[in-house]
User: Fold these one by one.
Assistant:
Number 1:
Amino acid sequence: MQELVLNILKSTDGYVSGAEIGERLGVSRTAIWKAISKLKAEGYNIEAVNNKGYHLIDDSDIINSQEIKNILETKLIGKNVVFYPEVSSTNDVVKELGENDGIEGNVVVAEKQTNGRGRRGRKWESEKGSGLWFSILLRPDIDPRNAPMITLIAGISVCVASRRVTGLPVTIKWPNDVIIDNKKICGILTEMSSEIGNINYVVVGIGVNVNSESFPDDISDIATSLKIESNKNIKRKVLLNEILKEFENNYLDYIKDCDFSKFRDKYRKLCSTINQEVNVIGRETYPATVIDINENGELIVEKSDGSREVVFSGEVSIRKR
């Protein structure tokens, strides 16, 4: 009932009375009022005026299964979308799907996460109404050794989609943090279940700060949002569609031959870490200058003595000048 009422509101220019909606659907005005009340509770901005009826305000930014399905233009990624008002972590939900009979391309989206995680177990702030918090279930028929590049491809996809939607100079801090002017807007956490030579499933979790207006003091100098940077409200479902479209194209292209070299130039152009002086943080921490990205998506750095190293794990921290 709610979906039918919502479709009428969306297709009507101006106001439509409860009596007219009820007549079109063959139900009472009371039933329409109840459906409208539930839609309002979900966050839809519906104006009710005596003797005129109901009107859906255009600027509602609602995320739910139906809204996402209505806008998605993908074939594989998102062919089954599950929405939760609140979960501990979308990655946890998708891992459970992966352990059971969840199909490749399943996407779980949450309005809020109570225990969102970043890399190295760090907490990821994911409050209601402010961002995109979602995870994708993949079952690639590839060698597990080729799976890490999926994370880099996700970073490329978020970066390109965010640029397309906002026009902002979004870049990638190696390996997969999506940033604007050294402040993070997106974190990506990829988790895999595998056996020798075989992948059971891969979960790609993505969190994007979309319409956040502020951050806690302890991260305010390292985090930002698309709204803060653009001074505009961004339609989250539009951004989600663009990210999933871009990721689907890149993912399907990559798993054909697991050749990351064809993404190398695109990654290079988006990567703000190249040519930066950094501290490489791993088993040992040392200063270096980032020279390039190799065909496997690994970082090539030059130490102060002129020797070069390939960095394939750990983190890099930009050194302040």
Note: The mean pLDDT is 91.
Number 2:
Amino acid sequence: MKLKPLFDRVVLKMTEAEETTASGIILAAASKEKPQVAQVVAVGPGGVVDGKEVVMTVNVGDKVITSKYSGTEVKLGSDEYVIVKQSDILAIVE
């Protein structure tokens, strides 16, 4: 099965949360923050959304930073994805 986003939606695969801090402290599972960096898996076609023309500026394969608690989590087989609006993506990591 394959996810194909509609309109201004983007399918992301979140990266794993860090298990150690920069100083080497190992974090317990409860203290890990939700990751904000993700890989773009699929991009919708854009188009007219709420009466405004939306041009998609992210591409499949881009690494992006998203708003902390945005999107809808979806599990497809053993893989987990997050579907967000393009406006919930804050930056592209280069």
Note: The chain has a mean pLDDT of 85.
